[in-house]
Amino acid sequence: MPLPVSRRSFLHLASSGLAVSALGLAPSAGARQRAPVAAINTPAPAIGTVYLNFNECPLGPAPAALDAARNVLPRSGRYLFEMAEQAVQLLAAEWNLPTAQIALYPGSSDPLNRAATLFTSADAGVVVADPTFEAVADVAAHRGAPVHKVLLRDDGAHDVRAMAAAATHAGLIYLCNPNNPTGSITPRADIEWLLAHKPASTVLLVDEAYIHYSDQTSVIDLVAGRQDLIVLRTFSKLYGMAGLRLGVAAASPQLLSQLAGLGENPLPVPAMAAGIASLRDPQLVPTRRAENARIRERTIAWLERQGYACLPSQSNCFMVDVKRDGQAFTAAMARQDVLVGRSWPIWPQRVRITVGTEAEMLRFREAFALAMR
Q: How confident is the model over 60-107, as pLDDT tens digits?
């Protein structure tokens, strides 16, 4: 059986031993564990299952975020709406936006799915890159909306001119930057061109879930004067809070009102506490960005020395051409307790690898070499 490799398909495997093992719940495997970063001068491979499949941050929440989440637990019997206001104020100051243009959600998948529901229909399709994160296309397709897939450019960037041409009858354009699964970036100038040349009635949804890992300039400032742009952020990636669930949408008050029209829920109190603590640490993003880039580039360089090409990445994941069936490779790695991502239909021999700790990537190299024998 192929390894479970996406949130979209994971539940279908929930009854299998692989699904239970991937969650770290199997009694024989014990609780899921993450190895600490090994010292740079004396690295040692990680012990136990290595999780490089879901683009999670292997470091987890920052120490201050963990403390904040623990300390607020006794007060979690209350909604503590004031904490959301505090988090929004911190983000507004960082982004130089009015608080009315920022909304918090339990993860960024929530507003992403809302946008797909609101702006697509049988008469208003969605334009997406191929490959990219499929949630928007999946929701749109379920609603009977046409899905227009546009190939990425050879350098991994979105082909914004082809996307604009495909958007004639589209209600939504989805652009993930850096892109998932490739980790490749689309320059801000290209996104600005797309905004200027797409149909005026088409909403552009820019997913910046991985922007903290890159040196790219965000487009979040552009929401200030537009009624056709939504920018998403999340604490699930670099901030290491995937399981805590905290995401952000930035857009005009009118667009945020439309998103809110599908219903609102209080946010998880520990997630808000962890998010606030993370935002107050000015060194967290640059420190983790630099460490991720160092480990990523070292791993890619090793793979390329072995003759396996990778797309350029500025994220916590990358795509490697394994020169064989991607599902077979994934299964071979799983047999060595190294869980990697999956391939996409358009690229059946390219597999997404999440960047783990240095110790985890050493285990990845060992398993890779054995899988390729």
A: 999 999 999 999 999 999 999 999 999 999 999 999 999 999 999 999
Do 84 and 218 belong together in one domain? yes
Helices (H), 73-211: 81-95, 109-119, 135-142, 160-166, 188-197
- Quote the number of domains for the chain: 2
Residue 272 domain-assigned? yes
Q: Rounded to an integer, what distance in angstroms lies between the CA atom of residue 259 and that of residue 152?
A: 29
**Can you tell me the distance from the alpha carbon of 308 to that of 321, in angstroms, rounded to the nearest whole number?**
6
CA angle 98, 99, 102 (to 5 degrees): 105
Cα angle, residue 98 at apex, residues 93 and 100 outer, rounded to 5°: 130
Distance set, CA 242 to CA 60, 106, 114, 318, 348 (Å):
8, 10, 19, 19, 27
Looking at the structure, do residues 25 and 73 belong to the same domain, yes or no? no
Residues 296 and 176 in one domain: no
Sign of the alpha-carbon torsion through 183, 185, 191, 194: negative
